[in-house]
Amino acid sequence: MAHPIRSVAVFCGSRTGHDPAHHAAAAALGRGLARAGLTLVYGGGSIGLMGAVADAALAEGGRVHGVIPDFLTRIERPHGGFSRLEITDSMHARKARMFALADAFVVLSGGLGTLDETLEILTSRQLGLHAKPILLLDAGGWAKPLARLIESVIGMGFAAPEHRRLFALVPDVPSVLALLGVLETEAAATEARL
Ligand code: AMP
Fold first, then answer.
1. Domain harbouring 12, CATH code
2. d(C-alpha 192, C-alpha 194), whole Å
3. What is the pLDDT of residue 106?
4. Is there a domain that residue 170 lies in?
5. Residue of the nearest CA to atom 23 in ligand 1?
6. Structural domain that includes position 170
7. Which residues line ligand 1 (CB under 6 A)?
């Protein structure tokens, strides 16, 4: 059953990147989610853009739900101020929990881990395993090359033209927040199959 979005998983880098636009977008997103009363679900770390989103959400009194695998707690250092922190026994379990907890996904700038998480939710939506909105935020021009790559595989005949509708490329944080306010989510019964 479709319903309004109440929780948002944010995928983003464990580094901040060179361009300050990425950090600014992470902080603005964290603040905006908290002000909108949306729960932030994220990878639980205190470093990089991940830490910036959580810091900003917590500073605004937002609800933050971190999910981190045990072996990463020494590297990504769990944030101290969470509403809730879950420690999983594997990366796969972390991804599954973040997926289950989220009504929608926002992808911020990041590295290979962020790309991995993004492709997994895109491909699971492609397979019809969920109908949760996926917003790619183009902070500092991060998302355009990914959108171009997807366009290129469609052009080459490796994906269907309708797969363009699996995600939205969004230019800035206010537009992300506006979309989260109007889009609906569908926690399909198929979730259990993921
Ligand atoms: P990165 O974008 O590489 O900085 O990573 C962002 C987040 O993705 C970090 O929390 C990483 O631990 C996580 N990550 C890295 N590799 C993977 C993977 N294979 N599957 C899921 N998450 C990952």
1. 3.40.50.450
2. 6
3. 98
4. yes
5. 113
6. 3-188
7. 13-15, 43, 45, 72, 76, 91, 95, 110-114, 116-117
